[in-house]
Amino acid sequence: SSSQCSSTSCNFNSAPDKKQYEKHSNSHRIHSLGQAFRNSWRRKESEHKTTKKSNSMAGMVEFVGLIKVNVVRGTNLAIRDIMTSDPYVILSLGNQSVKTRVIKNNLNPVWNEKLMLSIPENVPPLKLLVYDKDTFTPDDYMGEAEIDIQPLLSAAKASENSKLNESMQLGKWVASKENTLVRDGVISLAEGRVKQDIALKLQRVERGVLEIELECVPLTQ
Predict the structure, then answer these.
(1) b/e map of 97-130 (b: 16 or more CB within 10 Å)?
(2) Among residues 90, 214, 210, 211, which one has the least CA distance to residue 152?
(3) Is the sign of the CA dihedral 105, 109, 112, 116 positive or negative?
(4) What's the CA gap between 187 and 173, in Å, rounded?
(5) Are strands 185-190 and 209-218 parallel, antiparallel or unpaired?
(6) CB under 8 Å to 161, separation ≥6 — which residues?
(7) What radius of gyration, in Å, describes the C-alpha atoms of the chain?
(8) Rounded CA gap, 24 and 221, in Å?
(9) Residue 38's CB: how many other CB atoms inside 10 A?
(10) ∠ CA 22-25-30 to the nearest 5 degrees?
């Protein structure tokens, strides 16, 4: 009977030990799973933050300057209504666009209207589109032109700290058969301002010339 007792006591003691071991093993497994889940969650959160950051960085546009455009006049523009047109000009630079007022019944409109756009870091061309304003139908196309403003921006940056008061020529866009210039587009420094006067033949249209004055203001870091 003592051996049975010892056997019983042995069995009695071993049962809780087994349960204790299983309980410890389970809790260790749950802890490991919890740790793995937490690590995975942290990793996903970190990846999400990185993706969000890179997306927001990709959406940001750095600007390197301002371009002030004086739309001076149009000459001998195309007829889109009965004997005349109601022209206006749209300027676009990258994702930005602005437009002039409409001048009624005029093929030689004088806008003398100043508009301003920001220059993105990857400098795109300045696009000019001329349209005839219609009331009940879509506006009619009257031609377009394109200007590379990089030389003007470079000249403005180079002259940023200039103390010269007298006017001087900094460069020019030479009129040739390869471009649409009516005359050379001279870049000049006058009264601390870097400007360029340009007269362009409108493209993809039967006729018309557009005259504009550009001024570039670089943004210093």
Answers:
(1) eeebebbeeebebebebebebebbeebbebebbb
(2) 214
(3) positive
(4) 8
(5) unpaired
(6) none
(7) 36
(8) 62
(9) 10
(10) 120
Reduced to 3 states (helix: H, G, I; strand: E, B; else coil), residue 170 is strand
- Tell me: the pLDDT tens digits for 101-122? 999 999 999 999 999 999 999 9
Q: Report the C-alpha gap between 140 and 206 in whole angstroms.
A: 13
List the structure tokens of 29.
């497994």
Report the alpha-carbon distance of residue 32 to residue 36 in Å, rounded. Answer: 6
24: buried, middle or exposed (CB in 10 Å: 19+, 13-18, 0-12)?
exposed
Q: What predicted TM-score, i.e. pTM, was given to this entire model?
A: 0.73
Q: In this structure, how many other beta carbons lie within 10 angstroms of the beta carbon of residue 183?
A: 13
CB neighbour class for 91 (10 Å; exposed up to 12, middle 13-18, buried from 19)? buried
Three-state secondary structure readout of 111-132: EEEEEEEEEECCCCCEEEEEEE
Question: Other CB atoms closer than 10 Å to residue 80's CB: what's the count?
Answer: 20
Q: Extract the tokens encoding 77.
A: 């523009």
> Given this model, what pLDDT does residue 29 score?
54
